[in-house]
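In these records, each integer encodes one residue's backbone shape. Here is one protein:

___
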Amino acid sequence: MPLPKPRPTIEDRIRAALWFAERGFGVFSVWSTDPDGTCRCKARGACEQPGKHPVPTNGLKAATTDAHRITAMLNTMAEPNWGMVPPEGVFILDVDGEGVARLAELEAQHGPLPPTLRTNTANGQHVFLRWPADYPRPIGQMFGYVTRWGSGSAVGYVIGPRSVHATGAVYAPVEPLCEIAELPAAWAQATIAPAEPIIEVHGSYQLPAPGFTGSRYGEILRYVASRYMRGIPKNEVWAGVLHVLAPLFAEGLTEPELRNRFERAWKGTPEKLGPPVGSGATAAPVAPQRALRPGVDAADLLARDLPPLRWIVPEVIPEGTTVLAAPPKVGKSCLVYQVAVEAAIGGDLLGRRVKPGAVLYLALEDGERRGQDRLRAALGGRTMPRGRLEVRWDARNIGAGLEDDIGTWLDAHPDAVMVAIDTLGKVRGQSDGRRNAYEVDVQALSKLQDLFRNRPTALVIVHHARKDASDDFLASVSGTYGITGSADTVVVIRRKRLESFGTVLVTGRDVADAEIAVRFESMLWQAAPGVLSRMTFERSEVLRVLEEADKPLFPKAIGDLIGMERTATQHMVDRLVEAGAVARVTGGYVIARVVLDDEKHLNVPHHSSHSQSDRSDGGDTRARAREAGWSRPCRDYARHQDHHRRTPSGWTCDACHPEGIA
């Protein structure tokens, strides 16, 4: 059995990057992965693009051709991959998967491509070509390939040779190395005057099977045409492409790539296909009338002894319907797993005691392996008792049996505290095109809400949110105001991609508006000091380096580890000191905790494990607290620093334990 090839060294990457920089390519550092494919960025296993996204926060703007800067960027302990932006006039075709065979067909049709620079990728090749000056530059993709240019709306980058893919495959140049050739005229003419796609509409449309490997654009075209002919508006068709059709593709597309294909498919559709079938000809059916319950006199209502509102997670999730929304891959499902686990065993979440009871979690976007990983992370070594939390991987749609299934489960579990549906899009059926989007959203939620109207149980519906510049976070929830308006409570997670800190925003009929600072790491959400929720990615990196260090570090040492010069690192450290997250001690800077082992620094923050010592996760944590010197651990270090004092039996916090004040 042949031995595995060694991973390229830092020197290999630097040599390759400098070769491209000499030819005008802008170079910047890209996060690499661990041997198991886990991205080394802050998101770790939750990263959407492991080993493929820029290290600098300004992304492509950090690209440079300067040899000294390139060497400094890539010569770090993190062994980063590297990306490149082509020079003006050069473009790169990303030829992989089905595109490899299509390139041979195109060469048979337009003539062979000349010998040109190529690099091997994990699934195909990057083909480098120069656009002929006599032809206007095209817009968007060419021949269905993702196309990277050095400027304009299609500016982009590819991963450079000697980088390592998450699968372990190594990007490598195709030998022998060639200069970049010019695209032949026949290809250029075909590119700038593409044939008009033919839209076919059949009597019915059937979604492809999961793992679809055919033409993604062709499938989007057919889907758009079929939805349009049923009278479904553009915004709903786009939502279907994003949340229903795209997840079925074997090779996924980013949201911008998907949006580009959708707009191409939708453009000119009314002119090509005419009015939708039955538009204006068929009247909408009359909805069945629901019998109204008799009212009650206000005096009698005031005299009734009603139970208080039941909180599942105090100040966050009460009984009734809660919509929990966040953009894709931010960690909302991990939060639901945490809520489900803490509700099942009666633990803590974000510093709040969770009411115990039976829980049903419809994890419709997960499988058993992912569910097991997230459950283990949420439990943190604790044991899950039987009969407390049931996880299901599939469910019927709303109006097609889901209500009956949930009702049966609720009847069998009188101690139920929560039912979670992850996500709404997985159980909401297709619109018939006769009602507007608002009516569809209201009806979808009302059928579920009826089950929980007179039960002290929470229904948590996970939904997607979009990036929105509005100050009102409700506007970021996908769909119409029929969703947020119908729900009793709305919880929105805001966290920048690749950053650990964020906020959980809460509003509702029975809850006070709240903004909770949180931190997301290793599939777990934790409460965080408010100042850290607004911390930049670079400061987060400084914090990470100090957390992982076993000794104090000076700014120069920190900067060397994250690839940043000393002065900029010093400014970031100063800001963290002002925020109370980092402290200066003899020998450098450390994470701000309380010194328990050095008489010279009794009043100086230092690194210890006391901030984790109050969790109810068994003897190991309490043992660590005793080792750290806490007799009565602090539950809120950020606010209680002035209340810590040393006693003969160890450190205690008078704010958390006022009865201990002498």
